[in-house]
Amino acid sequence: MTSSPSTILRKAFPVPAQPAPRGRLAAVAPWLVAACIVGYALVAGGYPATVVGFALIYAVFVSGLNIFMGLTAQVSFGQSAFAAIGGYASAILTTQHEWGWLPAMVAGLAAALAAALAIGYPTLRLKGHYLSMATLAIGLIVHEIAVEWESVTLGYLGISGVPPIDIAGYEVSSDRAVLIMLSACVVATALAVARIRSSRLGRAFAGIAGSEDAARALGINVARYKLVSFLLAAAFASLSGSLFVHVVGYVSPEVFSLHMVILSFTMLYVGGIGTVAGPVIGALVVSVLPETFRSFRDYQDLAYGAALILLLIYAPRGLAGLFAALDTRRKP
């Protein structure tokens, strides 16, 4: 009797088995480090809480990028475009049209998904560096629109006075309240990514990452699943952009420049591409490292760069992979 396509797919790309006790320690270790960093910022408040808060916003953004790059093995340099769409939608609708933060965020999410669908349908037929260059152009185009469309975005002047998020009448504006809210958003994002990774959708992404031709032979609609992965990444990018403008209360084109793309790539590879914890620990470490080396003054950038190089040399699979490697070495 012939097996169904879903059975073949499950056998070819099985869900990882439950880890042994030592394996659980390796899986939990990155989260413990992240919890310690967030806990310290929560107790200290002030500037440390602000730095870690920005890191958590980036964690949401990088988690979406990880779905497209880590789980599906595609490359995108244009995710900042969808963060800009979500951020500007929230800023414009709340300041100029008096919308609430939640409807504005949903509208930004819908706009980002519509843009991702219109862009991704023709673009994702490209492969390799052609896809990379196409997505880079998307990010540059949206950034240029934010600069030149001054009647709406106010150009480099930016939009200020964006109201903070309020929950049940309580305004989330203090450092610690913002940190708690962003931590909850990151936990929800990580749970969503973990669920996607272990689902049938995640197995299809894994099949495409392994070999598009082999995935096609197993009955996977490669074009459709690549588009779904792109849409999911755009959705998380839009949410992170909206969170940023409501936390900071201001938005300008510089926020969503090419620097955001470079920084998010650094966070993804330092944390561990393809892992659930990687984007979170990567965003926290890359954000905290410059502050750690601030005492070096003139040599701050040199020390920061050297630390990143050492991380990539001795932890090529990222910090999340490093914990697993260390745990493996302890086994007899």
UniProtKB/TrEMBL annotation:
Q: What is its main location?
A: membrane
Which parts pass through the membrane? 25-43, 49-68, 99-121, 128-147, 177-194, 227-248, 268-290, 302-326
Q: Name one Pfam family in it.
A: BPD_transp_2
Membrane topology of the entry: Multi-pass membrane protein
Q: Where in the cell is it found?
A: Cell membrane
InterPro entries with a match to the protein in the record:
ABC_transp_permease, LivM-like
Which keywords are on file for this protein?
A: Cell membrane, Membrane, Transmembrane, Transmembrane helix
Protein name, entry field? Branched-chain amino acid ABC transporter permease
